[in-house]
Design brief:
By secondary structure, this protein is α+β, with helices and mostly antiparallel strands. The protein has two domains: about 5-115, D-amino Acid Aminotransferase, Chain A, domain 1 (2-Layer Sandwich), CATH 3.30.470.10; about 120-280, D-amino Acid Aminotransferase, Chain A, domain 2 (Alpha-Beta Barrel). It contains eight helices and 15 strands. Strands 7, 8, 9, 10, 11, 12, 13, 14 and 15 form a nine-stranded mixed sheet that branches. The protein has a six-stranded antiparallel sheet with strand order 2-1-6-5-3-4. Strand 13 (about 235-240) and strand 14 form a beta hairpin. Helix 2 packs across helix 3 (about 65-80) and helix 6 (about 205-215) packs across helix 8. The chain binds pyridoxal-5'-phosphate. Pyridoxal-5'-phosphate binds near residues 201, 204 and 241.
C-alpha cells in the first residue's frame, strides 16, 4: 500500500483525488519542493521548507502550516511508507475554484505530498554526464519553485533527444542553470556559478556547495559566466537534490576536463556526502 498526504491527512493513494478545477492542474498555479531522503531521514529539510514558504509568499499563496509542522507531517509519511532512500515531493496549489485568471477569494490551498524510492545516481556521479546548450526561454521569476515547468521540460526533452543528461540554459551568452539543476564551472581552482537572482532557482544543493567551499577554503564566486567559459572550463558540474554533485564531462560533443570528472568536483562530492552523513547517517 502506498500512502500520500492530501489536505493534511495521510491516506491511501487510491483515495486521494483533486478536483479538475484545481488551479495547479489548470494553470500550474502553485509551488513545490523535492527533498532527498537518506536512511529514512530528510536531508536539508528545513532549508527546503523555508524555500517553499518563500516561493509561496512570492505568489501570494498562504501555506497554512509552519515549517516545523510541515516537517512533522512529512516525517509521518516517510515512516508510513517505510521509505529508506528516495525523495519526498510536496506541492501547494492556490486551491480549487471555477476557472478564472484572477486569484479566487477565501479558497484553501491544496496540499499534496508523496514519496518515491530513488537510488543515488552513483554511476553518473562517478563517470560524469553529457550536456547540450539551449536558449533559456523561461519567464523572469525562475527564483520561484513554481509548478509551471514547461520551459524546463522542453529543455530537458531536447537534451534527452540529443542523448544527453542535461540542458545547460543560457540567456544570450550568459549561462543560467540546467533544466532541473544548477550549473557551476571550475576555473583555476575557483568554483563559479550564476548569482542567486531572479534568473535561477537558488538550489539548496548549490547553497550547500557554497557552504562547504567556504568551510574548506575552496574559492567560490557567484558571478556570470558564458558559454565560452563552459567550453574552456577546467571542470563543469551540476548540483541538485537528486543529482547531488554530478560532473559534466562533455558539452555539445566537446570534452571537458579530458572527459573525466575533475578533482574539485570529486572533492565537492565527498564534502556534500560528509554533510549527508552528518544529518542522515552513513550511506552504504
Ligand atoms: C531549475 C532548477 N534549478 C536548480 C535546481 C536545484 O535545486 P536543489 O538543489 O534545491 O534541488 C532544481 C531542482 O529541482 C531545478 O529544478
Amino acid at each position: 500500500m502506498e500512502y500520500v498526504i492530501i489536505g493534511g491527512e495521510i491516506v491511501d493513494r487510491g483515495h486521494a483525488t483533486v478536483d479538475i478545477e484545481d488551479r495547479g492542474y489548470q494553470f500550474g498555479d502553485g509551488v513545490y519542493e523535492v527533498i532527498r531522503v537518506y536512511n529514512g531521514k530528510m536531508f536539508t529539510a528545513r532549508e527546503h521548507l523555508i524555500r517553499l514558504q518563500e516561493s509561496a509568499e512570492k505568489i501570494s499563496i498562504q501555506i497554512p502550516y509552519q515549517p516545523t509542522e510541515l516537517e512533522e507531517m512529512l516525517k509521518g509519511l516517510i515512516d508510513k511508507n517505510n521509505l529508506s532512500n528516495g525523495i519526498i515531493y510536496m506541492q501547494f496549489t492556490r486551491g480549487e475554484s471555477p476557472r478564472n485568471h484572477a486569484f479566487p477569494h477565501n479558497v484553501a490551498p491544496t496540499f499534496v505530498a508523496y514519496t518515491r524510492k530513488v537510488d543515488r545516481p552513483v554511476s553518473s556521479m562517478q563517470e560524469g554526464v553529457k550536456a547540450i546548450f539551449i536558449d533559456d526561454i523561461r519567464w523572469l521569476r525562475c527564483d520561484i519553485k513554481s509548478l509551471n515547468l514547461l520551459g524546463n521540460l522542453l529543455a530537458k526533452q531536447k537534451a534527452v533527444e540529443a542523448g544527453c543528461f542535461e540542458a545547460i540554459q543560457h540567456r544570450g551568452d550568459i549561462v543560467t542553470e540546467g533544466s532541473s539543476s544548477n550549473v557551476a564551472i571550475v576555473k583555476n581552482g575557483t568554483v563559479i556559478t550564476h548569482p542567486a537572482n531572479n534568473l535561477i532557482l537558488n538550489g539548496i544543493t548549490r547553497q550547500k556547495v557554497k557552504q562547504v567551499c567556504e568551510q574548506n577554503k575552496i574559492p567560490f564566486e557567484e558571478k556570470e559566466f558564458t558559454i565560452e567559459d563552459v567550453l574552456h572550463a577546467d571542470e563543469v558540474f551540476l548540483s541538485g537534490t537528486t543529482v547531488e554533485v554530478t560532473p559534466i564531462v562533455e558539452v555539445e560533443e566537446k570534452k571537458i576536463s579530458g572527459g573525466t570528472p575533475g578533482q574539485v568536483t570529486k572533492k565537492l562530492q565527498q564534502l556534500i556526502m560528509d554533510e549527508i552523513v552528518k544529518e542522515c547517517g552513513t550511506i552504504e
